[in-house]
């Protein structure tokens, strides 16, 4: 810890000319970074690796051959990073409503979406050829494609022409990296309690 616990002392301790332990191991003394949305803590640099590893790997390892993965949320890019570590994954669709969150994370949390150490990937995980990032409402996305449809109306010829089979392929694994269930806001309640949305997730699984 830098002496006197000041920003000036911190920067001085990283100066290579003073031969300090901190200057020889700067990766151990990076500033702590935290992400807040609407005043609620979402992520913290001290827990990034452990949190996202435990969020992703149990589900993917429990599947015998996960090829198609869906991520709900995940704006920091760390969940996508962990998914792309699995070489069985052929496509990962990440649906994040907040495009600004993704761009600011690239700017200020670059190590969280860094895939440069993954063979065959890109420096920025979003640019990995297996990644398909959509900036839209994940709830609407799943309900529109996999929700229960009681309508007996036939699709028009125009709708049939626009039909993209890949859009309706099911997922081997779906990961929720959005708001925590204890957050008392309406959107969080939809994510974890809305039966229509939960049914669409069930229908979207292989």
Automatic annotation (TrEMBL):
Domain PABS: 1-206
Active site per UniProt: 177
Biological process, per Gene Ontology: polyamine biosynthetic process
Presence of keyword Hydrolase: no
GO molecular function, one term: transferase activity
Entry-linked Gene3D superfamilies: Vaccinia Virus protein VP39 (3.40.50.150)
Cited InterPro entries: PABS, SAM-dependent_MTases_sf, Spermi_synthase
Keywords: Polyamine biosynthesis, Transferase
Start and end residues of each stretch annotated as Disordered: 1-23
Pfam family name, one: Spermine_synth
PANTHER family: SPERMIDINE SYNTHASE, SPERMIDINE/SPERMINE SYNTHASE
Family according to the record: Belongs to the spermidine/spermine synthase family.
Protein name per UniProt: PABS domain-containing protein
Upper lineage: Eukaryota, Sar, Stramenopiles, Ochrophyta, Bacillariophyta
């Amino acid at each position: 810890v830098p002496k006197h616990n000041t920003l000036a002392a911190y920067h001085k301790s990283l100066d290579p000319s003073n031969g300090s332990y901190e200057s020889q191991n700067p990766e151990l003394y990076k500033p702590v970074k935290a992400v807040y949305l609407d005043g609620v803590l979402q992520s913290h640099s001290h827990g990034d690796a452990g949190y996202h590893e435990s969020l992703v790997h149990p589900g993917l390892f429990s599947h015998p051959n996960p090829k198609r993965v869906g991520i709900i949320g995940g704006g920091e890019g760390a969940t996508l990073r962990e998914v792309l570590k699995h070489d069985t994954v052929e496509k990962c669709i990440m649906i994040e409503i907040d495009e600004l969150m993704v761009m600011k994370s690239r700017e200020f949390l670059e190590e969280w979406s860094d895939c440069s150490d993954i063979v065959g990937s890109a420096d920025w995980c979003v640019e990995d050829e297996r990644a398909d990032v959509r900036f839209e409402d994940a709830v609407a996305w799943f309900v529109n494609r996999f929700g229960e449809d009681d309508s007996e109306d036939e699709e028009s010829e125009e709708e049939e022409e626009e039909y993209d089979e890949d859009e309706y392929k099911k997922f081997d694994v779906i990961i929720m990296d959005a708001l925590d269930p204890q957050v008392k806001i309406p959107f969080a309640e939809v994510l974890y309690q809305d039966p229509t949305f939960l049914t669409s997730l069930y229908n979207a699984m292989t």
